Amino acid sequence: MGSPKKNENKGFFAAMTSGFSMFGSAMSRSVNGLLSYEGVEVINPEGGKEDAEEEAQRGRWKDEERDSYWKMMQKYIGSDITSMVTLPVVIFEPMTMLQKMAELMEYSHLLDQADECEDPYMRLVYASSWAISVYFAYQRTWKPFNPILGETYEMANHGGISFLSEQVSHHPPMSAGHAENEHFTYDVTSKLKTKLLGNSVDVYPVGRTRVTLKKDGVVLDLVPPLTKVHNLIFGRTWVDSPGEMVMTNLTTGDKVVLYFQPCGWFGSGRYEVDGYVYSADEEPKIMMTGKWNEKISYQPCDTEGEPLPGTELKEVWHVADVPKNDKFQYTHFAHKINSFDTAPAKLLASDSRLRPDRYALEQGDLSKAGAEKHSLEERQRAEKRTRETKGQKFTPRWFDLTDEITSTPWGDLEIYQFNGKYTEHRDTAESSSSASNEADLKSIEFNPWQYGNISTE
């Protein structure tokens, strides 16, 4: 489903959507012969192909590290490298994928507004703006730590939300998450899939995201676009998410279709998002436009996609103030995710905050972070060997594998479901003891193997 009449130069976004054919993707150049390497594609999002060789010299890698990793990575071109390659902590951020899942909750007030809204189309404006908002955080170019099997992340003390995520599978790497407040429940099963293209990688969001708005019981389904990470080794790393985002109201059939424009020459089209909210019979009702790194606005439209007379473009969301010169380009909310201010009174020993490698990196000790990361990975391998020797099987504690398999644009996905045991655990912990202080919480030894269910196969 596309924007109305966009091929007839009629709709409000006709000029904008023409950017797909006019600009394509950012100008790139295969820098053959660069430092004796062949086929190194370097893309400068702010320039053209003539400065590719200069751009290739930039980036966070030291020369000797860059050379070594390029030689190593070449053999994986065309492969899924999600958990195949061991990478140095110099390219990591002090956060795990489980914590990164929680960043979607920064602007959760938009879901509160969607729940309270009586207009079914404005409901989708609020909910889809919430889905767009996380892309500001996703543009960070640091890699989060892969979670250990059984690892969790809990968040409390934010907008009345209780959030929990758990690493439910190691091969393939899969995570499940659940969040809830008085207005909505959020459930996700995620299995990232990647494809290394040389100096870039495509990240496919194989997953299912469902939001239930409690007032009317409306269920929303989200399918996001893929993400492209450019200049992995040569040049300054940057992120783009070109393609289509679709959010469907499974209760009514209404949907919103938004286009994330690809970055073009000299940054043309970068960050831009536009599209429409459609009724169940595919009639456009509201148009939406903006930039995912700045703000999103909306305006009622007619059946041709033109703004309705007497209406005006109104802002629905904008990026909150961010810290200046932050080393990892964190938002204030990202810092809250890492802090113990958002931890529950009785923190699980499997929580990501307690990872010694993550904490060492946060403190700036790269040597210790690398050693701790290696130690955790070796412990995980040893635990797996022990289970295999004893004929045992690991199953997650807080999420259950269902019989449901759903199709996504990038492959089929097994669905995990929140089983409610965590809610019982939390309520018992809160009623039986007083809150722990930060020092007490920090003293907990990280142990993701403590909570998983081990059974004999």
Automatic annotation (TrEMBL):
Keywords: Lipid transport, Lipid-binding, Transport. Residues 364-391 are annotated as: Disordered. It comes from the Eukaryota. InterPro entries: OSBP_sf, Oxysterol-bd, Oxysterol-bd_CS. Coiled coil: none annotated. It comes from Eutrema salsugineum. Belongs to the OSBP family. GO terms for biological process: lipid transport. This is Oxysterol-binding protein. GO terms for molecular function: sterol binding. The keyword Transport applies. Residues 370-391 have a biased composition (Basic and acidic residues). GO terms for cellular component: cytoplasmic stress granule; cytosol; membrane. It holds the Pfam family Oxysterol_BP.
